[in-house]
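Incident log, entry 3
Record: TIGR03085 family protein (212 residues)
Problem: checksum mismatch between cached and fresh output.
Input:
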Amino acid sequence: MPWVQLERSALAATFAATDPEQPTLCEGWTVRHLLAHLVQRERRPLARAIDQLSRNKPGQERRLGTLVDRARTAKGYDELLARFARGPSRWSPLAWADETVNFLEYVIHHEDVRRGGTPPLAPRQLAELELEAIWSRLGTVSRLSYRHAPVGVTFALPAGRGQVVHRGEHGVVVTGDPVELLLCASGRQRAAHVELAGSPESVRRFETWRNS
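Fresh output:
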């Protein structure tokens, strides 16, 4: 089974077991908002684009809010969850590149739900093959995220393997499991379990840039 299907099933189970009003790592969004976002992203791309252009604060998007309001009852939430669990319709552009586009998206949003509550849940124990699949796809996301970093950045696994995600002098090394590094690359470093190494000045410059 493709990794994206396993992650979709796992995320659907987490959505079903979590309070829809619980906050997530996505500022302004509850679990209900995040579920609605995934459905909108896969089934209503035009509405999503309009919401993005409107530049409303997270949690105040007009068209996303319509989906959220329809899911405020238990029945409405279950129906929204069922739409997500079915995946993109076969006519959706996302369905043609499901593994490429959605796999890492689901991994990230799964942790948005799990680590957004109080207390945040511990990292999941994923199969080594899935961790390898995440690691192999990490470079593209990371290079885009760190392209403006003021110092060089290398991602490393605890076992020692590494990949350069931004070339530059006075580099830093960010060490963690693939999911934790993915959270860093997607701007969720405060929730990620990683270690940062480098000269004090390099670390200072990197953290200042990252937190700005």
